[in-house]
Design goal:
The complex is a heterotrimer of chains A (about 500), B (about 325) and C (about 160). By secondary structure, chain A is mainly alpha-helical. Chain A is about 75% helix and about 0% strand. Chain A starts with a helix and ends with a helix. In chain B, the strands form 2 sheets. A 5-stranded mixed beta sheet of chain B has the order 2-1-3-10-4, with helices on both faces. In chain B, helix 3 packs across helix 11. The longest helix of chain B is centred in the last third of the chain and has 21 residues. In chain B, about 55% of the residues are buried. The chains are: A mainly alpha (about 500), B alpha/beta (about 325), C mainly alpha (about 160). Chains A and C meet through helix 8, helix 9, helix 17, helix 18 and helix 19 of A and helix 1, helix 2, helix 4 and helix 5 of C.
């Protein structure tokens, strides 16, 4: 794309997005999204679905701008609870829990929230520019990604999840295996066979995600805290809250991490079917590798907040591209946006950019405005959220419990999901006692079924020839990266085993 | 204000759920229908075609009845959870189900459900047919279905078709085409139509069945080979039907309807069918449905019953072939 | 550094779960590596889980002693009564919520759930708990049902 048309496009876009009505609705969308996104269970998908009817009376551009605002807001709201309460509402914020909540325990919860907000804003800005400049060209890349490439990407993600773990590698591997097993529950997409469903219709689509993460993180945390409370009289609450702003040192750790996270998010966000979700995990693992001994991951390293949050938000931006340029919604939220466009009389697809330049560029510019709004809304809110931590635990934990349960129930109005939450809460508690980490497990639950699916599909398409994984350059490249990463994890352990064996 | 509405909606729903609670509710049924708001069960997640249709219809129908239609989303198990949930509602005319022909043709053939598609559920109206366009990756040198079939006969097993999963209408289109045309094509299931469509665009698979391909066919990203059935698609009049291509008779199809309990009072069923048909005849509604990619049409209650029963029998044959049908 | 004993239940649980899953998955067609059936991956993954369980047992907790001590040490002997109390109150509270929300409505259910859950903490006092329960009951109805129009009943069913 030449620059003249880019500037004229951005000109059109700013003309649309700076319309006071559109600014107002972008603000409302972001605000509502943030507030609802804080409730577990009600992530971006549910929030947009609830508010969709209200936007149909608006003009198409305004309606979509509002929905996009809700999307960003809800995405960000999930991070807030992850950081403060160890309560991730969705897969992409699971990894924010690790160091976000770590910072909260150190009394740096406010700084963590501020880092998340700035990191997201930075990523959103870069993401918007990326879409405007390279978008149409890059979207063709999506089609280069076939089943073998997706499979390799999933393997890479899984290996990266072991890097996430703090403690024992073997326990992390066991968690991955357990997660893979849990991920297999449901209907096998390749044959239609029901697996591990125990006759429950509720399990045909797999283990519902929100009960899983709320149980493993939120409920398990309550159980551990209560047990501590009965044991000693020590007050279970995070350290006193220091300054709400990141220190110079924290900012210096966070800034390059946010930049790297953004880059990862931009690329992975383009890939429908798991790309956007993996971006935060991959960004975190990369940070951990890059930092080496300098990092303090798992105990509140600012880089561990900045990288996944930036990646997540950059991915949220680029996931619009396949929809706008190819007419393919890349995730559930985008499917809803398609519905919203159809209700407004717009058919999303390759022709949208030429036929509806107002809409295309208006949406792109309002993405950036939405990110700006998010910053404007959330920085003042940081102080409010952090005050929540001053609430006595006897009051706080029933609140967390109720918000979680009502949120879970309102996803599918399913009593079954509520019971599952109790079950996973117990599992999460046991895992904490047994010094195992839940993050690799959760990632495996999400990636496992996709991995199997892509592997079997690749074999199907190659008519049973496993050579397909090495004969395609992209797939081969991913394979090499994966092997290198695996070697770097295993090498120190193998060495230790060997040196021990020699001593004995 | 809103709270009152919701409690009413709940009463409507809950009455059917608890077996204990059935007796006390007769008082309501005596009053002129509709005495309260109506629950509208959507058996899929928000954002899909069923959701779009329900949003379009519920406003208009609510206006005509002077009551609200309260959308109640019960997604899961390909619609089976929503259908079972609907069956648990009292058949008093205060609940409707947004449905597709899968609820008659496919779901009861592959999943254990708590309804008999022939006697428990009545399809009220034909909202529209979803044309199953046959789209082909342009790298395949075939401009028509005949050419494709000839090519596939020379290369058995070489071509693959992407679908949104096992036992979906797209899958059954593939089985039907292979059987009727005497060709061997490979089924590659995906998660959802958009992934399958993408695979055909990328050339990972060669064939795709479904209305989702319309944009890509008209944009020449995919070659349109035809459309399943015996009627052309008004939005893409150039696509010949499979019947024209020499494959006459019933073909896998997809249509949308609104369903009510067969046990609901007859006058309510008739009244709702009439009102819904009036709504579907409105030009703006028709135009919207066309934009969703549907072909609006009309079918009376008997015609709808026949559609449902035909699909049950015909889909069953194909599902048995695919090894997916429940043993009866 | 105290000796880690958690490897025993963990290893045993992994082995047990793995074997159970292998047994269940034996009903699914297995296929081959190039043409996998739906039983291939479940069996392989379950076997991996059992194998890792065995490795954890064999390692005898040494995997942890190699790590720097985390901030959550395996700590003082747990007060099993206190643990039971925490588990029971939270477990019962969640079950109660699931069972009661349809027949009793959201308001009353939330009220009861909060009270049961509060029993899990030794520092709970009666009056604040009652106030909290009432406030949360009202707030959850307002937020979820009124503002977000979730179709959850607010009041008990009256028939």
């Amino acid at each position: 794309m030449d620059f003249a048309s880019l500037f004229s496009g951005l000109g059109i876009g700013f003309g649309v997005a700076l319309d006071p009505i559109n600014i107002l609705f972008a603000f409302i969308g972001c605000l509502v999204g943030t507030l609802v996104g804080v409730l577990p269970g009600l992530g971006p998908t549910a929030t947009i679905a609830i508010l969709l009817p209200m936007t149909t009376s608006l003009s198409p551009v305004t309606g979509l701008i509002t929905l996009a605002g809700i999307y960003y807001g809800a995405q960000y709201g999930g991070s807030t609870t992850s950081i403060l309460l160890r309560l991730p509402g969705e897969a992409s914020s699971v990894v924010t829990v690790l160091d976000g909540h770590g910072m909260t325990r150190k009394g740096r919860g406010g700084a963590a929230l501020a880092i998340a907000a700035w990191g997201s804003f930075f990523a959103g800005t870069v993401g918007t520019l990326f879409i405007a400049v390279l978008g149409p060209a890059v979207s063709a890349l999506v089609l280069k990604f076939g089943a073998p490439e997706y499979f390799m990407l999933m393997v890479l993600g899984l290996v990266a999840s072991v890097v996430l773990a703090q403690g024992s590698v073997i326990r992390a591997l066991a968690m991955v295996a357990l997660g893979l097993l849990l991920g297999l529950v449901g209907t096998d997409p390749n044959s239609g066979q029901y697996r591990f469903t125990f006759g429950a219709l509720e399990l045909l689509n797999g283990i519902p995600f929100v009960p899983l993460v709320v149980g493993l993180f939120g409920i398990a945390d309550i159980l551990v805290a209560l047990e501590k409370a009965t044991k000693s009289e020590e007050e279970v609450r995070p350290a006193a809250i220091g300054s709400l702003w990141p220190t110079r040192q924290e900012a210096r750790r966070a800034a390059p991490a946010a930049a790297r996270g953004t880059l990862i998010g931009l690329i992975l966000g383009l890939l429908p079917g798991g790309g956007a979700l993996m971006s935060s995990f991959v960004a975190y693992s990369v940070e951990k590798r890059v930092s080496g001994k300098d990092g303090d991951f798992g105990n509140g390293d600012p880089a561990g907040v900045a990288a996944p949050e930036a990646a997540n938000n950059a991915g949220a931006q680029t996931s619009f591209l396949p929809l706008l340029t190819l007419g393919i919604p890349s995730n559930a939220v985008m499917a809803l946006m398609t519905g919203a466009m159809l209700l407004q009389g717009i058919v999303p697809g390759p022709k949208i950019m030429t036929n509806q330049p107002q809409l295309f560029w208006g949406l792109i510019v309002s993405m950036w405005i939405g990110n700006l709004m998010l910053l404007v809304i959330n920085l003042p809110l940081v102080g409010v959220w952090v005050k929540m931590l001053k609430i006595r635990y006897t009051i706080l934990y029933p609140i967390i419990l109720i918000v979680s349960l009502v949120g879970i129930y309102s996803v599918d109005y399913s009593t079954f999901d509520v019971f599952l939450t109790a079950l996973f809460g117990l599992l999460g508690y046991l895992l904490q006692r047994w010094r195992c980490e839940a993050a690799p497990l959760v990632l495996a639950v999400v990636l496992g079924p996709m991995m199997e699916e892509y592997f079997r599909r690749a074999m199907l398409i190659a008519r049973g020839d496993a050579g397909i994984f090495v004969s395609r350059p992209l797939s081969l490249g991913l394979l090499v990266i994966t092997l290198a990463m695996l070697a770097s994890i295993l090498a120190p352990n193998v060495r230790r085993f060997r040196s021990k064996a020699f001593q004995e | 204000m809103k709270s009152v509405i919701h409690r009413r909606a709940f009463l409507a729903g809950a009455a059917g759920l608890g077996s204990v609670a059935l007796s006390a509710r007769n008082g309501f049924a005596q009053q002129a229908w509709p005495a309260r708001d109506i629950t509208y069960v959507i058996p899929y997640a928000p954002g899909g075609m069923s959701d779009n249709i329900s949003r379009l219809l519920s406003d208009k129908l609510g206006g005509m009845l002077g009551r609200q239609l309260l959308n109640d989303y019960r997604a899961g198990a390909g619609g089976a959870i929503g259908a079972n949930y609907y069956m648990a509602q009292k058949p008093d005319g205060y609940s409707l189900l947004q449905a597709t022909n899968s609820f008659f043709g496919v779901i009861p053939n592959v999943t254990k459900v708590e309804y008999d598609p022939k006697t428990d559920l009545t399809p009220l109206v034909l909202v529209g047919d979803a044309p199953m366009a046959i789209a082909c990756n342009p790298a395949v040198p075939a401009k028509s279905l005949e050419e494709f079939v000839a090519l596939a006969k020379k290369n058995p097993g070489k071509f693959a078709y992407g679908t949104s999963g096992h036992g979906t209408v797209g899958h059954l289109c593939g089985i039907w085409l292979a059987k009727r045309a005497g060709i061997e094509i490979l089924h590659v299931p995906y998660r959802g139509a958009s992934q399958a469509l993408q695979s055909t665009l990328a050339g990972e698979t060669q064939l795709f069945f479904g209305p989702e391909a319309a944009e890509q066919i008209s944009g020449k990203a995919l070659t349109g080979l035809g459309v399943m059935g015996s009627e052309r698609w008004s939005a893409m009049p150039d696509l010949p039907t499979t019947a024209e291509s020499g494959l006459a008779g019933w073909a896998p199809r997809s249509w949308h309807t609104v369903v009510i309990h067969s046990k609901a009072p007859e006058e309510i069923r008739l009244k709702l069918a009439k009102m819904l048909n009036d709504i579907l005849a409105m030009p703006e509604v028709k135009q919207r449905l066309i934009m969703f990619g549907l072909i609006p049409g009309f079918e009376d209650l008997a015609g709808m019953r026949k559609r449902a029963d035909d699909d049950y029998a015909e889909f069953r044959v194909l599902l048995v072939e695919a090894g997916l049908a429940l043993k009866k | 550094m105290q000796h880690d004993t958690t490897y025993r239940p963990l290893g045993a649980a992994c082995i047990a779960l793995g074997l159970l899953a292998i047994w269940i998955a034996s009903d699914y067609p297995y296929g081959s590596v190039t043409a996998m059936g739906p039983g291939f991956v479940p069996t392989a993954v379950a076997a991996l889980l059992a194998l890792l369980g065995a490795l954890i047992l064999l390692d005898g907790g040494k995997d942890l002693s190699r790590q720097p001590e985390g901030e959550e040490p395996a700590s003082a002997p747990a007060d099993s009564l206190g643990r039971l109390r925490a588990m029971l109150s939270i477990g019962v509270a969640i079950m109660l919520f699931g069972l009661a929300v349809k027949p009793l409505g959201l308001g009353l259910t939330v009220f009861l759930t909060v009270i049961v859950a509060s029993l899990g903490h030794p520092g709970t006092r009666l009056l604040p708990t009652l106030l909290l329960a009432a406030a949360l009951a009202v707030a959850s109805c307002l937020i979820f049902v009124v503002l977000l129009s979730q179709s959850i009943p607010m009041l008990p069913r009256i028939d």
